[in-house]
């Protein structure tokens, strides 16, 4: 088990400036997108599969709301036909000594109170910054070969995936000049699958964009299905963030943060043959 950075290894310049700037820009964007997105979701706290939704349709698999049970308000969450009491967390939220019908607690949304218009403004603002930052990263990473060298997995990475998974399971976290197979696959999934999918499904939910590119509705099976994919991809990104932070802490936060702030990282001595 190895849970800290190497002390005697050399310092190398691992992260180029473009990677560091876009990394922190994404962190800020995704924070505001998550909380403003939950504000927007409160306007219709249900997820559907299909092109349409409404009272006459029975195609929702998630619904968050409130109901009176034995004379008191309770938060109710329905998931795939199963009903859960989520009072205090989802559907019915405590506000001082009173409980009110509200999808999420105030600390989970931007703004903290119900304000769909402001939530949409914040969401769209940071969404376009995210798009611009992603384009900048693609261009810079092609020029400095960060994309092909460190992100796109090759045949050798796929062959080494099993041993890399075993090392992570034993918490043997390596500090090397290049990303390991699991890192490459994770970052590839975020940068080439999750973020583009979030952008595409977000645009598909826009009636204005539908008029420009109606084929996106067919691609994602309708606006409601696109909304569901958008929400589930957001949950996957939150899970990635939690695992990412855990790996940073376990691998030695000072060394990891230094690499994403200054670009310099201390690696294992055997990496340079020392």
**N-to-C SSE string, H for helix and E for strand:** EHEEEEEEHHHHHHHHHE
What's the story with the biggest beta sheet? Answer: 4 strands, antiparallel
Number of structurally distinct domains: 2
CATH superfamily of the largest domain: Transmembrane di-heme cytochromes, Chain C
Mean pLDDT: 90
State the CATH topology of the largest domain: Fumarate Reductase Cytochrome B subunit
CA-based gyration radius:
22 Å
Terminal Cα span: 22 Å
Q: Order of strands across the biggest sheet?
A: 2-3-4-5
As a percent range, the share of helical residues equals 40-55%
What are the key terms here?
Fumarate Reductase Cytochrome B subunit, 53% helix, Thiosulfate reductase cytochrome b subunit, four-stranded antiparallel sheet, globular, two-stranded antiparallel ribbon, 2 domains, 10 helices, Hydrogenase_cytochrome, electron transfer activity, alpha+beta, transmembrane helix, 274 residues
Can you offer a commentary on this structure?
This protein is α+β, with helices and mostly antiparallel strands and 274 residues long. The chain has two domains: 11-57 and 108-272, Fumarate Reductase Cytochrome B subunit; 58-103, no CATH class. It contains ten helices and eight strands. It has a four-stranded antiparallel beta sheet with strand order 2-3-4-5. A hairpin with a 2-residue loop joins strand 3 and strand 4 (72-79). Helix 1 runs antiparallel to helix 2, helix 6 runs antiparallel to helix 9 and helix 9 (223-251) packs across helix 10. The mean pLDDT is 90.
List the helices and strands and how they pair.
Elements: E1 11-13, H1 17-41, E2 46-48, E3 60-69, E4 72-79, E5 82-85, E6 92-95, E7 98-101, H2 116-143, H3 146-151, H4 155-159, H5 161-169, H6 181-204, H7 207-212, H8 215-219, H9 223-251, H10 253-261, E8 264-266
Antiparallel strand pairs: 1-8, 2-3, 3-4, 4-5, 6-7
Helix pairs in contact: 1-2, 6-9, 9-10
């Amino acid at each position: 088990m190895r849970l800290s950075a190497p002390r005697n290894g050399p310092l190398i310049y691992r992260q180029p400036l473009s990677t560091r700037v876009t990394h922190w820009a994404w962190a800020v964007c995704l924070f505001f997108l998550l909380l403003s997105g939950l504000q927007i979701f409160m306007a219709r706290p249900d997820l559907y599969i299909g092109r349409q939704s409404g009272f006459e349709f029975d195609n929702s698999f998630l619904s968050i709301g409130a109901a009176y049970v034995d004379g008191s308000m309770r938060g109710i969450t329905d998931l795939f036909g199963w009903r859960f009491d989520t009072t205090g967390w989802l559907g019915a939220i405590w506000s001082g000594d009173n409980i009110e019908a509200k999808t999420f607690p105030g600390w989970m949304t931007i703004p903290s109170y119900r304000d769909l218009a402001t939530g949409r403004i914040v969401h769209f603002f940071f969404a376009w910054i995210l798009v611009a930052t992603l384009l900048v990263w693609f261009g810079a990473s092609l020029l400095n070969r960060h994309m092909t060298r460190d992100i796109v997995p090759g045949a050798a990475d796929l062959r080494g995936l099993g041993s890399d998974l075993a090392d992570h399971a034993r918490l043997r976290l390596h500090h090397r000049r290049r990303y390991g197979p699991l890192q490459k696959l994770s970052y590839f999934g975020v940068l080439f699958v999750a973020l583009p999918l979030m952008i595409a499904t977000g645009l598909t939910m826009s009636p204005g964009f539908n008029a420009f590119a109606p084929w996106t509705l067919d691609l994602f099976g309708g606006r409601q299905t696109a909304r569901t994919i958008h929400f589930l991809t957001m949950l996957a990104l939150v899970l990635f963030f939690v695992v990412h932070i855990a790996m940073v802490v376990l691998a030695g936060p000072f060394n990891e943060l230094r690499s994403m702030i200054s670009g310099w990282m201390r690696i294992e001595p055997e990496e340079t043959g020392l």
